[in-house]
Amino acid sequence: MRAILLGGGLALLVSLLGTRFAIRQFTLWGYGQEIRDDGPTSHHTKRGTPTMGGVVIIAATLIGYFGAKLITMTAPSASAWLLLFLFVGMGLVGFLDDFIKVSKQRSLGLRSKAKMVGQTIVGVVFGFLSLSPMLEDDNGRTPASEKISFLREIDWLALPLVLAIVLIVLIVTATSNAVNLTDGLDGLATGACVMVFGAYMLVNIWQNNQFCQEDPSATCYNVRDPYDLAVIAAAITGACFGFLWWNASPAAIFMGDTGSLSLGSALAGFAILTRTELLLVILGGLFLLETVSVILQVSFFKLSKGRRIFRMAPLHHHFEMLGWEQVTVVIRFWIITGLFVATGLGVFYAEWVARL
To answer: For a tag site, which of 69, 77, 112, 231 has the least CB within 10 Å?
Structure first.
């Protein structure tokens, strides 16, 4: 438990202080956010606000995690290395996107195909390694599983290796893009991520306490390295918490694609490595709603030749266009996230109780 507290505390401190430094430096370098011309007019006042704040979240997470491991004199696990690779690798894709935006002073960075190629490469490498026999522990467990999972592995839903990797890539790209779509209002995605990563910290702690190491039973969890994953979850939660101090309305800095893609991929990584893939649909329900709103809007627009379901997508912009204040939208969406997280944790715990 000491490593979890240290990881979260160190990441929070580094993020809180480091974001202030990043705001000053990014402003000095001219790394300001470009705003979509077709977005709400109230957003035009945000033009020039420093972006790429996700760099601080990533750095704070790494310092928090490795600092905790150094203090407790324990080595990182295979699952931790894989999750951090996914987290940093997807952050690099987002960083390239952000850097093109600020260097060319436009609201679009990497072309959609180039971004998808980058996300796919990172996802494929993560999927292949997480299922590789080379990373089996002493009990023959790989970091990820070829079986589809809800709260545990579903034995009759085992996939061939290639299809399992494809599914992992789909989960990673879908979740990273979902968080990216949600990151449209001051503090919205950051606050939601605090709650969802906090939930995964609790899931990992519980799985570690009920670990199938020496005494397998119906109630224990057949996962690998749950405690180490809990340390990373605590570090990311702390990093997002510290960043939220500066990202809350009126935002002094944005996380950019560097932050949203890395955080979304980390959520996917936790779902895959904890064997709770379908539980992510509940815990990350807000991100799902935002994504579905875009899919519905685009599909209906094409099928109806120009008509729209929402005044603007993603969903948070629809409520802005209805006249809601940005702060009101953010707080109410945080409440929705809290309800999703509470429901997900309730389902997770209820399943374990039902097995007693």
So the answer is: 112
